[in-house]
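Changelog-adjacent note: as of this version, every example in the card shows the full chain rather than a window. The one below runs 951 residues end to end.
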Amino acid sequence: MKPFLQEVAEDLTERFGTNLQHCAIIFNNKRPAAYLQKHFANIIQKPFFSPSFFTIQEFFAAASQFKIADFYLQFFTLHRIYNQLLAEEKLEPISSHKFFPLAKIILSDFSQIDADLVDAEKLYRDLEDISIINKDFDYLSPEQYQFLAQFWTSYSEGKHKKQQELFIKMWRRMPKLYHKFHASLKNGGFLTNGSVYRHLAEGSVKDLAYLSDFDKGKIIFVGFNALSSAEAKLFTQLQEADKALFYFDTDDYYLKDNLQEAGLFLRKNIDRLGLKNVFDERPSLMSTADHLVNVYKVQGQSVQAKILNEVLADDYSAENEVGNTVVVLADESLLIPALQTIPTDVDGKKIDLNVTMGFALSSSSIFGLADLWLNAQLEIINTGKLTYKSLEAFLTHPLTGLSQRMRDKIQTALLKENVVEIEHLRLVRQGGLLEVFYQQIEEPKNVVSNLLQVLNFVLNRLSNNKALKKIDAELFVKTIQELNRLHDTFGHHIGQEDISFVIYLVQKSLQAIAVPLSGDPLNGIQLMGLLETRNLNFDKVVFLGFNEGIIPKSSIGNSFIPDSIRRVYGLPVLENLDAISSYMVYRLLQRARNINFVYNSLTDESTSGEPSRILKQLEYESKFTFQYHELALEVKTEVAKEVVIKKEDHPFIQATLQKYLNKEKILSPSALTQYISNPIDFFFNYIAGIKEPKEVSAVVEANEIGSILHKVMEYFYEDLVGTEITKTAIEERRKGVPKLIQKAFSSVMFNNPDKVMEYRGMQKVILAIVDAYVNVILNQDISQTPFTIISLEQKVEALVHFPLNGKDASIKMFGYIDRVDVKNGITRIVDYKTGSDKLTFKDIPELFNSDGKHINKALVQTLLYTYAYEQYAGKTNVEPNLYVVKSMSQDGVWFKTGRQSLSGQFLEDIKPEFLAALRNKLTELFEAPYFKASAIEDNYKFSIYKTLFGK
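Full-length structure tokens:
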């Protein structure tokens, strides 16, 4: 079917011939100009002078002698005047940061008021009256109050009158704010877009000398639909002055039917305003032409894009000409998934793809680098320090160009010290990019200039190293251009602002940048947003994200003007969005042969899971041929299989095990208990050497709390080793416990016991927990006084012999005993525990049963210490004690089975049995054919290796 713009080109060529150069052709957006020029060239087929092309904003801005004020100039002007009005009312000024979200709404309302020629003074007076009614008529019945509340939907019954009083005051100052704001801009030679429209509409087109440039031709408005009141008035005046032609893209299917919302604004333009459509007698393509519609129901957001390869298969092989295929992103967040799906070539043939939407800077590494710098400056300004996570993000950022050697050097140093917050001067002293990046901003005016310096430094480094990608180069240029513009705008306004607020403005500005991607707008597959399709037609149309709530949108945006007042004054309301969306979809469909709708059927926080009402309406009312497809994703779970690691015929495993037998490696009690609990964990940890990567963290892990406690107890008793410990000695030293805890904290967390620091938040909680644990231990020790400490944190080693393949073998075991003391002639091994260890056990065989539920790691470890110490010191009758700080006050410190404590003769009887079971387990470790997982999942529920052995 013939495209709308081709029909326009044919009609204009016939009307004006060589006088086309005297015409101005006005569109809603820039894109249709290229298509119309192409059609002119195809029709005329010889050199000709082109008409002038404008967007409507460009055309009316050119007709005004004033410049258009950008958003930031409007914001700073509005803020200054607002605070002046507050001062007149003897109220405190409002900060820029608090005013910014308010200003965005006020400026949006002002723009709509101007574009629709509304009397601002009257509108805000009505708002004030309504809010006063809402405040004062509390005696009304609920039904009466509900009726009045429809005028003031934002604040209804139950809201505090204080809030309503503040709003009443705001409405009273709004007319002054409106007039003073526009007057101030005008004095500087600026207008807003909305006030340009009002300024022109309230004058006469006969007085616009600018229009005389087109006296020999016409001003031609192409493809307009919804008009503001100002546009409608200007269009009407231009038609009455015989200066304008209007080409409306219509179809009787929705134009003649008053129930069709797609024709709402066209009926208003043609029937009520009397604007004459050049194409007033055209056949209804919606009713007469063939339309094949495919509806794809898919499950998932990104899956909508993945279906493109099926829908566009024919287009990949065909020679795509202008007007053939378009992919319309009703949900523009699908741009990246769509780009990742459409291939660059198929069977060696290049796929022509033109993306009109532009690539969002906020999705790029350049924005990530700028955002890192801005946030780093906030940290430095607020604390003089930088968090490790922020620095790590900088070190690993792809654009910093830091060598792996430099990254490793910095990260290793900080990991060793466990530095959670780094002094920024320490980074500046490193020189190079670190110095440039972390130089502190001193004044608000330096925010933009310093960021420009950082980006230029990075850009030059990448260019010199020939590591700059094309898309990155375009993004750098666009970012630097925007920052230079901001620098010019901010120059006169930010001298007294907080640096943090200027950083916030820069972040918001950069987030709005989009860079056009390369492509040919006239050939190949076109990838567009819905707004960009205005005036364009395609034989094949694919809609992605065609869900209810996305098209049409479910919100008109933030405004202080309630819905009922908007209706009274003719301002846009929610139904307008329905009509505009329906029209844009219908006008695309009326000339398309192959139509494809894709929607997400899953319900989540971002989508309803329902197709758009526009699709439902087409299904019920049109005579299109519909075909339905459902992409069902099968969910398959992998069959659980046991993972075993065979030892035989594996030289590395055999060699590593042999190192234990050769005494090149020493087995620790914790390694043995890991093997007992879950043999395959032992393989990953001690044979394969797979370790959890170390991280700098402000969070103190459970094992670190235990390490801090052990250090405190070592510090507490280190001067008393070899002496008799009395209650008096403990009480005297108890006063110094808080300092010992801080020293231990610095030793464990930062490898520096002398480090002085300011404790915050969770760190204070950890100190309090350790203090409580220390006091539990000291209370227990007081109850045991007098006793004598023999050693603290003593390293002990012992040989353990066991049978292996019919021969005698041995391994060396070692460990550090928390404390050895003597009480009533009995030598005791004391082990401190901060976890949930138990003192009870079933029997010795169950201690070593990897597939059992009664493994007691603490008992195995303490008995190993006992065995090793007896060998080391040549003593007998050494007794194991366990100080479980969480339960010690109730359960005591002695292991027990049933009611029998593990002490005295019973302990001595148990020791040989324990040693025999230990030898059997060591034989299994070296003789068993494979490492496997325990049959009891509780034995490895905290294992870091679970994903490796299929659990």
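Structural remarks: Confidence is low (pLDDT under 50) at residues 151-160.
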